[in-house]
Design a protein that fits this description.
The complex is a heterodimer of chains A (308) and B (385). By secondary structure, chain A is mainly alpha-helical. Helices cover 66% and strands 0% of the residues of chain A. The longest helix of chain A has 30 residues, at 59-88. Chain B folds into three domains: 2-191 and 275-304; 196-274; 306-363. In chain B, helix 8 (152-208) runs antiparallel to helix 11. The radius of gyration of chain B is 31 Å and the shape is elongated. The two termini of chain B are 34 Å apart. Classes of the chains: A mainly alpha (308), B mainly alpha (385). At the A-B interface, helix 1, helix 2, helix 3 and helix 14 of A face helix 11 and helix 12 of B.
């Protein structure tokens, strides 16, 4: 096995098969492996630069080979998963927003093509982590159902403030597509050479979001502007933008919830449930993340009532 | 290999403890519902085997303790004193005593010697009865081998409190029994002893008349002879109230008492079945009451106090420890409303309200990886294709 690409493929495959990663979503696995490579670079370099692996190469070169192999292996699974998610979404809500009929399969294809292109950027991949995990866990469905049953603050915000004249199923799909497109904010960001630099908050300024909105409207012509705005504005702070779309607020909360989502096989006795814990912590950090506190309160109550 | 041997030994001890609890119950229960002498004998032998096993267990543990933290540590801190009290004294004063008297009295019936000749049967019953109380301590031993909680602290605390509870009960019961035996049994004992003394004197007088057979014929017609089972003179049975089959099936070694005259030529077996039976039933009833009290006490601690201790002490500590220890563990401590003013939950409130939000704000996923590999794990990756 002389080819570096083949060696990297075997090495990455082996890392992906690690039992510690079995409960993680695909992009979380990628994140974990990148973290592992970054944090252990000093101890890994002597072994990886040996004759058996990649001799006569610097760590940066080795990392680049491994990163390319990792992303290509992850993409194989990721694009399939993305396609499956997009196939499961009912796009009839687009007709309700636009009041016109458009070929829904074309909408789906446009999103898929756009995302595949966008996911070549590390920042976009990283930002997609939370969205993908949330979509895979179906977290939106269960909370939106409760919101429509309770008909409290969030329901009022969705139907009266954002004026979404649609049923709960359409709203779920609307949020799901917005969630997929949330990482479109990185359409114009410049990739950082150092992959370890990352903002915990993932918040951008309104002006930047508006610029991305305009660019996306040009690029994704089949999609209604409300949908694009819902996706892009989920990257701004509610505290500085009180007229932020309700769906954007929901998306920003759930993508952050799932960004560092830790799968707990069993919750320790004496500990609160994962969602309840997370929402309670988020309530205390709402200013830091720019969340809507009233929304967090309602989600916290839902999580507490259902032991989520 | 050594670990396997230890776990097999511990498993065996646990099984034996469970069995001895059943045996303890049955031994007293059998007396109350009047099981036959054969079953009582089986239970007595089983009791002896258990006592022997626990004595060996204690000696093994004591020997092994020399290679660990020392014998003193084992005796004082590792419940060695419980192992001791529930083994050697029982073997000597309870089952061992019973076994010796059983075989000696049977042998005595043949060769004319008896251990019971040296000691009054009522005193013997008293010693056995008092020693038996120590069997209840064995129930404490089960805590050593059953893992009822993940926390070593909880295990230690529950074990300690159960040991104290059961030990206090057993000691109280022991003291109560000694006092009771001393005062209430003494009168009955005195009456019984004087009656036997009279018979022995009569038998002795008869011996000097050289007309023993006719005297005994006269004696058995009198009211007192209902307490005589067998009279032997010069090694020959001159009187037997029942056939050997009746003795075998209805009389245990505790049901008769053996005396011989000062010259050793006349031997008399006295019937103490009635007295023994009444006393044994009373004692067995008391034993069963205490058995269930101890059982309930242990059950209460195990089923009620142990979860309470976990809920209010070890669980919140465990969750906080994980939160402090693991970077991506962010679950809050559950705070029960009833105990929110407890120190531990005040601390947990601070942990939930201050530490976790701060930890969340400072969380940088870049240094959190669940992968645990080092360069040595990489060796051979390429070969394993």
């Amino acid at each position: 096995m002389n080819n570096d690409r083949q060696k990297a493929e075997v090495f990455i495959k082996r890392l992906l098969m690690n039992p510690a990663l079995q409960y993680y979503e695909i992009l979380q696995k990628e994140e974990q492996i990148l973290t592992f490579l970054n944090t252990n670079s000093q101890s890994l370099f002597p072994a990886l630069s040996s004759e058996q692996f990649f001799p006569n190469k610097t760590w940066q070169q080795i990392f680049a080979i491994l990163y390319n192999s990792l992303t290509s292996q992850i993409n194989e699974v990721l694009f399939k998963e993305l396609e499956a998610i997009l196939n499961n979404i009912n796009y009839t809500f687009i007709g309700l927003l636009r009041q016109t009929t458009c070929p829904l399969s074309q909408c789906r294809d446009q999103i898929l093509t756009f995302e595949k292109k966008l996911l070549n950027k590390y920042e976009a991949r990283n930002a997609f982590n939370g969205s993908l995990t949330a979509l895979k866990l179906n977290i939106i469905d269960k909370y939106i159902e409760q919101i429509f049953q309770r008909r409290e603050y969030i329901h009022f915000e969705l139907t009266k403030v954002q004026r979404l004249k649609m049923g709960s199923e359409e709203i779920k799909n609307f949020i799901k597509v917005s969630m997929i497109l949330k990482n479109a904010i990185h359409l114009v960001t410049v990739g950082t050479a150092n992959l370890s630099i990352e903002s915990v908050m993932d918040i951008v300024q309104r002006a930047f979001a508006d610029k991305v909105n305009r660019m996306l409207e040009e690029e994704l012509r089949l999609l209604p502007p409300e949908l694009i705005a819902s996706a892009v504005n989920s990257n701004i702070s509610f505290l500085e933008n009180k007229n932020m779309e309700t769906t954007s607020r929901i998306i920003s909360i759930f993508t952050m919830r799932c960004k560092y989502y830790k799968p707990y096989n069993t919750v320790d006795r004496g500990a609160e449930t994962p969602d309840k814990s997370w929402f309670n912590i988020a309530r205390r950090n709402y200013k830091f993340y720019g969340f809507d506190i009233k929304m967090l309160d309602e989600f916290y109550k839902i999580a507490a009532e259902h032991n989520w | 290999m050594k670990k396997n041997r230890i776990s097999i030994f511990e498993l065996m001890v646990t099984v034996m403890i469970a069995l001895v609890v059943v045996q303890t119950f049955l031994e007293d229960f059998a007396v109350i519902i009047d099981w036959d002498a054969g079953t009582l004998l089986v239970l007595m032998i089983a009791g002896f085997c258990f006592d022997l096993f626990f004595t060996i267990e204690f000696l093994v543990r004591l020997y092994n303790s020399r290679f660990e933290k020392g014998a003193l540590h084992y005796i004082v801190y590792d419940q060695g004193w419980v192992d001791f009290c529930a083994s050697i004294p029982l073997l000597i004063f309870s089952s061992g005593f019973q076994m010796i008297t059983y075989f000696q009295s049977h042998a005595g019936a043949i060769i004319g010697l008896s251990f019971t000749g040296f000691i009054s049967m009522l005193k013997l019953i008293k010693i056995i009865r008092i020693a038996r109380i120590l069997r209840l301590l064995r129930m404490v031993k089960i805590f050593r081998n059953i893992k009822y909680t993940d926390s070593p602290m909880a295990q230690r605390h529950i074990k300690k409190i159960v040991t104290i509870g059961v030990a206090v009960l057993v000691v109280s019961f022991l003291m109560f029994t000694i006092i009771f035996e001393t005062f209430s049994l003494s009168k009955a004992g005195e009456l019984y002893e004087s009656r036997k003394q009279k018979i022995m004197e009569a038998v002795q007088r008869a011996e000097y008349t050289f007309n023993l057979n006719s005297y005994i014929s006269h004696l058995i017609k009198t009211e007192d002879t209902h307490s005589i089972l067998i009279i032997r003179a010069g090694g020959n049975v001159v009187y037997s109230r029942f056939t050997q089959d009746v003795y075998d099936s209805e009389y245990t070694n505790e049901d008769y008492e053996y005396r011989k005259d000062t010259h050793g030529t006349v031997e008399v077996f006295f019937d103490v079945k009635e007295e023994n039976s009444a006393l044994s039933r009373l004692q067995s009833r008391d034993n069963l009451i205490f058995f269930f009290i101890v059982l309930m006490l242990i059950g209460g601690y195990l089923l009620l106090y142990s979860p309470h201790f976990a809920l209010t002490v070890t669980d919140p500590i465990y969750v906080m420890k994980r939160g402090l220890d693991e970077k991506n563990y962010n679950l809050e401590v559950k705070i029960p409303g009833t105990y929110k003013d407890d120190d531990i939950f005040k601390l947990a409130t601070l942990y939930n309200q201050r530490y976790l939000p701060l930890k969340d704000r400072n969380m940088d996923n870049k240094d959190i990886s669940v992968l645990d590999m080092d360069s040595t794990d990489l060796t051979g990756i390429m070969d394993e294709k």
